[in-house]
Please model this.
Amino acid sequence: MKFFLDTANIEQIKEAKDMGMLDGVTTNPTLVSKENKSEHELYSEIIEICKGKPVSLETTSNDTDVIVKQGQEFVNTYGKDVYVKVANTKEGLKAVRTLFDSGINCNVTLTFSASQYLLAAKAGARVVSPFIGRLDDISLDGNMTLIQDIEVIRRNYKFENQAETLVSSIRHPVHVVQAAVMGAPLATMPFKVLNMLFKHPLTDIGFATFMKDYESVDK
Ligand code: E4P
Model:
C-alpha cells in the first residue's frame, strides 16, 4: 500500500520522507489555508520535496473550462508529478475526460459512493478518492463496505487510466489497516495518523524491559 500524506505542511512532509513512508502528497484548499505561505510558494516546495512522487493540487471551480485551464496551468507550472484534483461532479468529470485526453492525471475527490467511483473511473481518473471519515462523521455505517465495493469494481474492469483507489479522509489507524486488508492500493492520511501507526504499548513496555535487563548483562 502506498502512503500519501494529506497535508500542505512542509515540516510534516519532510518528516514523513525521512521516515521513508512518503509515496506522495494530497492537498486541498482547507489544508492550504492553514499554512502561512502563498499557494505558489507551498506548491513549489512540496513538489521539490516529493521529487517524482505524485502531488495532488485541487482545482477550485465547478465550471468545466475553468477546471481544465486550472489543471493545465498546474501541470505547466509544477510539472508532470501533479495529479489535478477535481471534485466528483458532472462538470468535474467532463474536465477529467479532457485532461486525461491531453495526458494529464486527475485525482477525483469528494467521492462518497460506488456509483461515483464508477463514473470517475470511466471519465479517465488516474486515482479516485473515496472519503471514509466524513461518512463516519455523519454516523453513516458502511464506509469500509464502500471501499470493498470500489475494490471489487476496480478489479472487475481494466479502466483506461487505472482509477486506483486512494482511500481518503482517514481518521485513525484502523481505517488504514482495514483498507489494506481490502487491498486498496493507496491511502492518504494526516501526519497524526501516520505517527499513530507506529504506536503499540507492548512494544514500548517490551523495549524498556529489554534495555533494563541488558544493563545487568556481563559485557
Ligand atoms: C483527500 O484528498 C482529502 O484531502 C482529505 O482526505 C479530506 O479529509 P478530511 O475529511 O479529513 O478533511
In short: The pocket of erythose-4-phosphate is lined by residues 6, 26, 28, 109, 129, 131, 133-134, 168-169, 188 (CB under 6 Å).
